[in-house]
């Protein structure tokens, strides 16, 4: 088997994508070539017929939103991870929340804001979380406590990402991440609980530039663990996820609130998914092999 390992793309999450792809590169036993897109798109399109499988490792717009999967479908090249439509839906946080509510899972109250007039005409209850509607890795994500902070955060999200802005209810909470692997027979890996060190929420700095001490695995009450795993598998199947996904929640005394689905979870050394896998006593080589095997 010969594999095309695809990565790169937008500047916002390019570095995380390259680090994730490197994990696959270092732990893949099959013959493979890595292409950093869009720089090497012409080279890939000249050679794609040589490959039996593509492994697209991207984070963010144009690719994790399903674009690369649509391209691979048009080329007739098999690939790992969820199909085009699932990526496209899950990249849109607001649409995903609407769908997940249909299966009786709570979500935070949200407002989708596309311009300053909508922002000024909407009545909010502070504090709030302000973030791009499409995008992961907690880029351009802010907690705000008043109108002036809200307006500045709105401007920053628009300037940095050019995206529609999602304004969500801030809930006093603990965040949990549930890694799921499989297609029909799903396995929930150890759940990660966030213990914040310097921020009031799990922002980019906490996620990627901390020493990892904020990530607590295994320490989940048994009944909560059961419900989080059940909810995650239900969401995974309902949204059509395949291979792997990470599903995030916020939990407090009033219940469990769905936050988002990440259809291509980070695979860098700082990422939750590979850490959770290794806690089960298995190696990174084994998870890469399992992902490839699911793609056959």
From TrEMBL:
**Which controlled-vocabulary keywords does the entry list?**
ATP-binding, Cell wall biogenesis/degradation, Ligase, Nucleotide-binding
Alphabetized Pfam families for the sequence:
Dala_Dala_lig_C (PF07478)
Q: Mind telling me which InterPro entries this protein's record contains?
A: ATP-grasp, ATP_grasp_subdomain_1, Dala_Dala_lig_C, PreATP-grasp_dom_sf
| Location of the ATP-grasp domain | 97-293
Q: Which family does it belong to?
A: Belongs to the D-alanine--D-alanine ligase family.
Q: What protein am I looking at?
A: ATP-grasp domain-containing protein
SUPFAM superfamilies referenced in this protein's UniProt entry, alphabetically: Glutathione synthetase ATP-binding domain-like (SSF56059), PreATP-grasp domain (SSF52440)
Q: Which domain of life is it from?
A: Bacteria
- Gene Ontology MF, one: D-alanine-D-alanine ligase activity
Set out the biological process GO terms recorded for this chain's protein: cell wall organization
């Amino acid at each position: 088997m010969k594999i095309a390992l695809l990565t790169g793309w937008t500047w916002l999450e390019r570095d995380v994508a390259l680090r994730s792809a490197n994990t696959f590169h270092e732990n893949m036993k099959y013959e493979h070539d890595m292409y950093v897109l869009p720089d090497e798109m012409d080279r890939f399109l000249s050679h794609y017929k040589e490959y039996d499988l593509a492994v697209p490792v991207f984070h963010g717009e144009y690719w994790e939103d399903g674009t690369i999967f649509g391209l691979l479908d048009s080329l007739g090249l098999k690939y790992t991870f969820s199909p085009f439509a699932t990526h496209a839906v899950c990249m849109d946080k607001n649409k995903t929340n609407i769908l997940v509510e249909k299966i009786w899972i709570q979500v935070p109250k949200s407002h989708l804001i596309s311009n300053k007039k909508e922002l000024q005409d909407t009545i909010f209850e502070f504090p709030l979380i302000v973030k791009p509607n499409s995008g992961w890795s907690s880029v351009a994500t802010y907690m705000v406590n008043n109108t002036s902070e809200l307006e500045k955060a709105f401007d920053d999200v628009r300037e940095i990402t050019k995206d529609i802005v999602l304004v969500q209810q801030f809930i006093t909470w603990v965040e949990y991440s549930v890694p799921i692997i499989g297609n029909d027979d799903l396995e929930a890996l150890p759940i990660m609980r966030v213990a914040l060190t310097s921020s009031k929420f799990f922002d980019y700095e906490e996620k990627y530039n901390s020493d990892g001490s904020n990530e607590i695995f295994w320490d989940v009450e048994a009944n909560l663990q059961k419900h989080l795993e059940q909810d995650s598998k239900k969401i995974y199947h309902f949204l059509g996820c395949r291979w792997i996904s990470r599903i995030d929640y916020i939990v407090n005394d009033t219940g469990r609130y769905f936050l988002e689905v990440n259809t291509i979870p980070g695979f860098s050394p700082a990422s939750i998914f590979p850490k959770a896998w290794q806690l089960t006593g298995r190696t990174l080589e084994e998870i890469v092999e399992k992902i490839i095997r699911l793609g056959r």
